[in-house]
């Protein structure tokens, strides 16, 4: 590899050494340094990439490691980018893409940071290091340091979930639990490193760590380019897909390293002429620890600290954002975007929603981003034509108890002594018993996307048997045949419309009592409203309701069992 980069002081512009672990400018003492590469040598970069492997090291020309032998890698990076179709359908937003960082070797996007930061440590000959963490850095650094033969001291707060901490210990790191806030743990880690003369990883100020996050931007642009070229037939036959920037990059932040690095990545792509524009930045924090958001809303140039974070989402409990706030605020003022807070509760609801709508199980910190996405779409800050990337930053591995509750499974006894035949019957009886509690719901809707969405919202709750019909005539036949506990009805359908179904049901003594909820895209006239009045339970306008509100209505309309 022939990597040429230089480290320069952001304040006096002095070029410094070639060691990316250097922390201060020897000229002026400033501790905010930057790395520049020889971009002019990278004219044919995308051509070179087509022959490279599926890891972040495919971008090695723009990463600060000189020698291949120093690279510590588990194949991190090049995570999939997929279309969140169901979530998009629910939110009325067709261009949501999930960058699935759960698929890193230790389950979060900190694997990128660990790979490059630990490789840089190896290149600098470091044998022992100290890091403070809200959880995931501890796990990722521990795994990579184990592989690199570097002894790691990890400082965490006692609020970090025990399952995470056990994994850190498994890799052989020394774990020090600090009874206090993360900011206090950080300070103690710094004192410890100084007293023992050990290398301290300073997160945002560790250039190698910051550079690592650029690879998220590189991958997004490369992957989006391919996705959009696929949509545009005229580009498919060309031999190279153009890269593409999204309209938004969204992430929940703690220290803010992720978005600071990601935006540098997009800036470099723009300098290389690979993308045309910069994305806007959506930054989210939990309302119990939102120093950046509150400072941003007040228009402050420096962040006001939060001394005592109040949140169950330990990953995001950084109360003192420092320089990260200034950098992120500057990026938002330059390229557009916003900072917004969501509550723990909103995050937990979003966590369930994403798992049940799209099969993606994320840790609470990631769910903060999902909740933020929902909020910005509802507020109209993100508009439907914009392409949005969600950093799906970490996995749920140990699903915390308060998220699914105790009653997450149905108990069933399998009788070991009975004959094979009898045993099968026992199982069927048990299943029927469970079935007896299940309510039947008929969805009559000719738009397949809408009926699929309704089915998903209902299925997410588990206890419904759902049947669908996609035109009015079949719908009425379904209602007559199955006599459901509830009907969800569209109005505008070819042939027999929803109004006619409601009238037919009211004229049939067997069907008259079945509650009907109308979900329609139609703006009703006064005459149409009068036709339905007194005959239906509720009327919902498509696209204007929250799935949770509709569910509440459905539960109330169902006969009690
Ligand atoms: C670290 C982390 C964050 C916050 O990232 P920063 O860019 O460091 O603020 C969000 N989600 C998960 C899962 C994380 O591990
Ligand atoms: Zn300087």
Task: Tell me about this structure.
With about 550 residues, the chain is α/β, with parallel strands linked by helices. It has 2 domains: about 70-405, Rossmann fold (3-Layer(aba) Sandwich), CATH 3.40.50.1100; about 435-555, Response regulator (Rossmann fold). The chain is built from 20 helices and 17 strands. It is elongated, with a radius of gyration of 27 Å. The chain starts with a strand and ends with a helix. Pyridoxal-5'-phosphate binds near residues 258 and 366.
Which tags fit this structure?
single chain; 561 residues; alpha/beta; Rossmann fold; 2 domains; six-stranded mixed sheet; five-stranded parallel sheet; binds pyridoxal-5'-phosphate; binds zinc ion
Secondary structure tally: strands:
17
**Ligand species:** pyridoxal-5'-phosphate, zinc ion
Task: Kindly identify the CATH topology of the largest domain.
Answer: Rossmann fold
Provide the spatial order of strands within the biggest beta sheet: 3-4-12-9-10-11
Instruction: Catalogue the unreliable spans.
Output: 235-239
Characterize the overall form: elongated
Level of helix content? 40-55%
Number of helices: 20
CATH architecture descriptor of the largest domain? 3-Layer(aba) Sandwich
Under CATH at level 1, the class of the largest domain stands as Alpha Beta
Class inferred from helices and paired strands: alpha/beta
Averaging pLDDT over every residue, what do you get? 89
């Amino acid at each position: 590899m022939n990597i040429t980069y230089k480290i320069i002081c952001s304040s006096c512009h002095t070029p410094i050494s070639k060691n990316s672990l250097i922390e201060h400018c020897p000229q002026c003492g400033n501790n905010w340094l930057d790395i520049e590469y020889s971009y002019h040598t990278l004219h044919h970069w995308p051509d070179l990439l087509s022959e490279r492997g599926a890891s972040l090291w495919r971008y090695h020309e723009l990463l600060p490691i000189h020698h291949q032998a120093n690279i510590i890698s588990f194949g991190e990076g090049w995570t999939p980018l997929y279309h969140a179709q169901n979530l998009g359908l629910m939110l009325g937003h067709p261009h949501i893409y999930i960058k699935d960082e759960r698929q890193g070797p230790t389950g979060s996007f900190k694997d990128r940071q660990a790979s490059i930061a630990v490789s840089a440590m190896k290149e600098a000959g470091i044998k022992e290091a100290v890091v403070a963490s809200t959880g995931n850095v501890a796990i990722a650094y521990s795994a990579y340091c184990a592989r690199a033969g570097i002894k790691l001291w990890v400082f965490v707060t006692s609020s970090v979930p025990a399952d995470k901490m056990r994994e850190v210990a498994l890799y052989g790191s020394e774990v020090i639990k600090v009874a206090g806030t993360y900011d206090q743990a950080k300070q103690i880690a710094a004192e410890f490193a100084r007293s023992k003369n050990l290398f301290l990883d300073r997160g945002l100020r560790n250039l190698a760590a910051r550079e690592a996050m650029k690879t998220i931007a590189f991958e997004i642009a490369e992957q989006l380019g391919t996705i959009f070229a696929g949509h545009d037939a005229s580009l498919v036959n060309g031999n190279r897909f153009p890269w593409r920037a999204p309209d938004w990059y969204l992430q929940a932040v703690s220290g803010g390293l992720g978005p600071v690095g990601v935006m540098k990545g997009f800036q470099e792509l723009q300098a290389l002429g690979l993308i045309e524009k910069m994305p806007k930045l959506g930054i989210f924090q939990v309302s119990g620890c939102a120093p950046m958001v509150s400072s941003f809303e007040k228009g402050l140039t420096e962040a006001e600290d939060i001394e005592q974070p109040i949140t169950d989402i330990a990953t995001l409990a950084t109360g003192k954002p420092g320089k990260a706030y200034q950098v992120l605020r500057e990026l938002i003022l330059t390229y557009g975007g916003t900072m917004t807070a969501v509550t723990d509760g909103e995050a937990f609801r979003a966590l369930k929603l994403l798992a049940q709508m799209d099969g993606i199980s994320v840790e609470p910190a990631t769910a903060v981003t999902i909740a933020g996405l929902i909020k910005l779409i509802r507020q109209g800050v993100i508009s439907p034509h914009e392409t949005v990337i969600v950093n799906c930053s970490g996995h749920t591995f140990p699903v915390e108890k308060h998220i699914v509750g105790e009653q997450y499974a149905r108990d069933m006894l399998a009788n070991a002594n009975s004959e094979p035949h009898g045993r099968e019957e026992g199982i069927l009886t048990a299943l029927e018993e469970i079935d007896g509690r299940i309510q039947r719901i008929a969805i009559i809707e000719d738009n397949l996307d809408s009926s699929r969405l309704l089915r998903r919202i209902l299925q997410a709750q588990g206890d419904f048997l759902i049947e669908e019909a996609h035109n009015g005539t079949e719908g009425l036949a379904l209602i007559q045949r199955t006599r459901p506990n509830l009907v969800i009805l569209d109005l505008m359908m070819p042939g027999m419309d929803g109004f006619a179904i409601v009238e037919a049901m009211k004229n049939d003594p067997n069907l008259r009592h079945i509650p009907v909820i109308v979900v329609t895209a139609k703006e009703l006239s006064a005459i149409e409203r009068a036709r339905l009045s007194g005959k239906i339970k509720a009327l919902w306008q498509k696209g204007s309701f929250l799935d949770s509100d509709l569910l509440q209505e459905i539960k109330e309309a169902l006969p009690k069992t």
